[in-house]
Specification:
The protein has about 325 residues and is of the alpha+beta class. About 40% of the residues lie in helices and about 25% in strands. It folds into two domains: about 150 residues, 2-Layer Sandwich (Nucleotidyltransferase, domain 5); about 170 residues, ATPase, nucleotide binding domain (Nucleotidyltransferase, domain 5, 2-Layer Sandwich). The chain contains eleven helices and 18 strands. The protein is flat and about 60 Å long.
């Protein structure tokens, strides 16, 4: 009998949870395809290493942007390979619970479920990522108390207030950590006159990026292609200039949190002041992000113990306790 699966189909990373076994796949949401033959050459970590390093007829792409499918055919191929690696075959077709951003449209939701069924799943159901993240962070979402979760992913930032198993207030914007990478690329191009790739921008973000001034700020040596001469060039970037460059994106993320607090019921707002806000997602790992949100909202911010896995662990909890939680994730779908 096939084991049920939970998939966190993220813009940056895809995680797969198998019933009874836990997380079995955790890799970048990247697929490398031969344009001439349509053959899939690599997925995950191997394909991520190919970004910006392939000949013209081989493309290494992220089939999801802003939490939504941008290439239906490529996404279906990626999901099919994920299911195969998880042991799915013609004789063992599992039910799949997929975590999706709450910001995606009805058409995009249908695209996700159709791609999953065509890839080999017996059935596909959706669970909104803020709900899954709250479950993964062990919050008492089935009680009449306010639970506030901020999920900063690669393509979206979602802030949700959850009580009695449902979303009471929601603010979702299609801005994530990839937008921070893009701002770093634009800044280096505009200020220093060199072109850098997506991977280099991400490395800069991890090494010296921050949401607010932090102790131990340092510099980074970056190599790129001079836009004038076309030759390799090295520049030194400071933490302060990168912080200024990414501030517009970070400010939009923080503003969305403030807006969500503004529409939350007053009675639940008291709970936030006591218990704090919970921060999950890869974007939450940006240095100073928790401190910046706490400063601007005047509400304590708690980092999840497992910010990268919180969503898929929450979905995994649902499939492990399917009978008890079926109503929860069915209610969270906006179909």
């Amino acid at each position: 009998m096939a084991r049920d699966l939970a998939i966190d189909l993220g813009t940056a990373n895809t995680l797969v949870y198998m019933q009874g076994r836990g997380i079995v796949i955790n890799e970048p949401s990247v697929i490398a395809v031969n344009r001439r033959s349509g053959e899939v050459l690599a997925t995950g970590e191997e394909a991520w290493q190919m970004i910006g390093r392939t000949p013209g007829y081989i493309v290494a792409v992220r089939p999801l942007r802003g939490g939504a499918i941008t290439d239906f055919e490529v996404t279906e191929k990626m999901i099919r390979l994920l299911l195969q690696r998880a042991g799915v075959s013609r004789f063992s077709r599992p039910k799949v619970l997929i975590c999706v951003p709450s910001a995606i449209t009805e058409v995009e939701r249908r695209a996700v479920t159709d791609a999953t069924r065509r890839a080999g799943a017996a059935d596909a159901q959706l669970l909104e990522q803020p709900v899954a993240a709250a479950i993964g962070a062990n919050l008492p979402i089935d009680e009449p108390v306010g639970n506030m979760v901020i999920d900063i992913g690669g393509g979206t930032t979602e802030t949700a207030v959850i009580s009695l198993g449902g979303i009471v207030a929601l603010e979702a914007v299609r801005i994530g950590s990839f937008d921070i990478d893009s701002e770093i690329q634009s800044h280096v191009r505009r200020t220093h006159g060199i072109a850098i790739g997506e991977r280099t921008a991400e490395e800069i973000k991890k090494s010296i990026g921050s949401a607010m001034p932090m102790p131990g700020d340092n510099e980074a040596e970056v190599r790129g292609r001079d836009l004038v001469s076309g030759l390799p060039k090295t520049v030194i970037l400071t933490a302060a200039e990168i912080r200024d460059a990414i501030n517009p994106v970070v400010s939009q993320m923080v503003d969305s949190v403030v807006r969500c607090l503004g529409v939350a019921p007053p009675e639940l707002s008291q709970d936030f002041l006591k218990r704090g806000i919970y921060l999950v997602g890869g974007g939450s790992l940006l240095r100073g992000m928790a401190e910046r949100i706490a400063t601007e909202t005047r509400v304590p911010v708690n980092m999840s113990n497992e910010p990268l896995e919180a969503v898929v662990l929450g979905a995994g909890h649902c499939i492990e306790n399917y009978a008890a939680l079926r109503g929860l994730f069915m209610d969270s779908r906006r179909n």
